[in-house]
Design brief:
The complex is a heterodimer of chains A (244) and B (236).
Chain A: E1 2-11, E2 14-24, E3 29-33, H1 40-47, E4 55-60, E5 63-66, H2 73-80, E6 83-86, H3 98-109, H4 114-127, H5 143-155, E7 161-165, H6 173-188, E8 192-196, H7 200-206, E9 209-214, E10 217-222, H8 224-229, H9 234-243
Helix pairs in contact in A: 3-4, 3-5, 4-5, 5-6
Chain B: H1 2-8, H2 10-58, H3 62-77, H4 80-90, H5 103-129, H6 132-140, H7 145-175, H8 187-198, H9 201-230
Helix pairs in contact in B: 1-2, 2-3, 2-5, 2-8, 2-9, 3-5, 4-5, 5-7, 6-7, 7-9, 8-9
Classes of the chains: A alpha/beta (244), B mainly alpha (236).
């Protein structure tokens, strides 16, 4: 479903991703953890081409891009339709209501019929528990509510993979739960998800596989049980120590 | 002596009042037939130029950047009056047949180019002020650069640009007085013409100044209303 091969990314002199290769099966939930600067967010952003990798290739579903060649804008836009992203800072469109935020993609990008898009958007917002907040602007919503709108907005484009970039890191602790619940429901429904997070409990409960990244490499990859009880690499052990 | 006359000589006061009232209509005609239309048309064209220039400056294509920078540098580095003179008096030197432009079109060209350059800096700053996350959110749902700009970025940038652009428009209304020097019969030129017949310079120029102020003052109220309307979606 997702095949990353030899991915690398440098920002000028700084090599942030060194040689990333990863296979993700459909329906799996991959949680990526690691210290700051490890490249985990960069890797995620390479998957929807918000960053352009310096080398390697990415294949999602039936589309693939080889970064040793020049990549056209059209290729990029088409590739992005396969993924949906949820941002740490929510990034909702402040001049649009919750409903309009969710409808924007289907109507403008997919050119769907407005009424159909509206109905689907209402369903999605109900799914994330915001049926009564359709006409509210982002400034009228709490952080947790905004993030749930963000999830609905990404889901509206019917992506093959959902990418989560530290979705709860900017939330007050009491609001984290409502967002994690939506993510758990999504996982249970079989969505392929790649989640960068510090929420270890979530990782233990929901992840099929945990990736530990450090210094631009994937250092260790294991199931949650294996990962937390029997980490193999020293760096992994040291990082887990810090979390105690 | 002027002020002395008003307060001590009723005949003089009457004369001043007569001049003021009889000049009012010609001045207002100058304002509504020339000054205001000139300002409005030039502002609209200038705004289009400004957005294009701002986008060129922000683009990754080097040649667009260079053209934009040169354009803005030339306009900002030379006096508006000189620009108007070059267009109206100077171009015919190159070709009297093809490059002689009438006063009003010449004024529109001059003011549009001028507004375009100054306003492009305002537009560029407004667009840049919108956080990168907004662009990324648009891209992440599959938008192109054009869709992102039109649906997400420009609507938000418009709000930010409102105060400085209102400033630009109000300045432009006053700058239209310079068109008098390239023979456009707008309000200030009318004042000059009338004053040259009766020599009451202080009276006429004060009257026209008052009229400019009376035109500009409501505009700042309009600006406030527009700002309120554009910020409806924000926490106040």
């Amino acid at each position: 479903m997702i095949k990353i091969t030899g991915l690398s990314k440098s920002f000028g002199e700084l090599e942030v991703l060194k040689d990333i290769s990863l296979d993700v099966e459909k329906g799996k939930v991959i949680v990526v953890i690691g210290p700051s600067g490890s490249g985990k967010t960069t890797m995620l952003r390479c998957l929807n081409l918000l960053e352009t990798p310096s080398g390697g290739s990415i294949a999602i579903s039936n589309k693939s891009i080889d970064f040793t060649q020049k990549v056209s804008k059209k290729e990029v836009t088409e590739f992005r339709k396969l993924t949906g992203m949820v941002f740490q800072g929510y990034n909702l469109f402040p001049h649009k209501t919750a409903l309009q935020n969710v409808m924007e993609g289907p109507v403008i990008v997919k050119k769907e019929d407005k009424e159909k898009a509206r109905k689907k958007a209402e369903q999605l917002l109900a799914k994330v528990g915001l049926a009564d907040k359709l006409d509210f602007y982002p400034y009228q919503l709490s952080g947790g509510q905004q993030q749930r709108v963000g999830i609905a907005r990404a889901l509206a484009m019917e992506p093959e993979v959902m990418l989560f970039d530290e979705p709860t890191s900017a939330l007050d602790p009491e609001l984290v739960g409502e967002v994690l619940k939506v993510m758990k429901d999504l996982a249970r429904e079989g969505m392929t998800m790649i989640v960068v997070t510090h929420e270890m409990k979530f990782a233990r409960e929901v992840a099929d596989e945990i990736l530990f990244m450090d210094g631009g490499y994937i250092v260790e990859k294991a199931t949650p049980e294996e990962f937390f009880s029997n980490p193999k690499e020293d760096r992994t052990k040291r990082f887990l120590q810090l979390l105690q | 002596m002027f002020l002395n006359n008003i307060f001590t000589d009723p005949e003089q006061l009457q004369r001043y009042t007569d001049i003021a009232t009889s000049s009012l209509l010609p001045l207002l005609k100058g304002a509504f037939l020339y000054s205001l239309p000139l300002a409005i048309v030039s502002f609209i064209i200038g705004l289009v130029l400004a957005v294009l220039t701002a986008l060129a400056r922000l683009s990754s294509v080097k040649i667009f950047q260079i053209i934009a920078r040169v354009y803005v540098s030339i306009i900002r580095g030379t006096p508006l009056l000189v620009q108007l003179f070059i267009i109206f008096y100077g171009l015919p030197n190159i070709s009297t047949e093809h490059l002689t432009i009438d006063p009003v079109p010449a004024a529109i060209i001059g003011f549009s180019l001028n507004v375009g350059a100054y306003a492009s800096e305002i537009v560029r700053a407004s667009i840049s002020s919108i956080s990168k996350g907004q662009w990324e959110a648009g891209y992440s749902i599959g938008m192109t650069y054009g869709q992102n700009l039109k649906r997400i970025i420009l609507p938000q940038a418009a709000r930010v640009s409102l105060p400085p652009l209102s400033n630009t428009f109000i300045s432009l209304i006053k700058d239209t007085s310079l068109a008098a020097l390239i023979l456009v019969t707008e309000m200030f030129r009318k004042a000059q013409e009338i004053a040259s017949t009766n020599y009451e310079f202080l009276l006429l120029y004060s009257e026209v100044a008052l009229l400019y102020w009376l035109i500009c003052f409501p505009l700042s109220i309009v600006q406030q209303r527009l700002e309120d309307r554009f910020s409806r979606h924000l926490l106040k």
